[in-house]
Amino acid sequence: MYYIAGLAIPSSTQAVEGLAVLTTFRFIQYALSRMYTTAHVAEAEAGPIRTMPSSVIGKFISPIQALASLVPPATYMLCVAFNRFTQPAWIQRMSIPNHYVTHDTEVALRVAACASTILFLRFIEITFTHLGNQWHAIGRREKPKVVQTGPYTVVRHPLYTSMLIQQVFFVVMLWSYAPLVGLGITAGAFAVKMPIEEDLIMKDPAVAAEYRAYMQRVPARIVPFLW
Question: Tens digits of per-residue pLDDT, 205-217?
Answer without folding.
Answer: 999 999 999 999 9
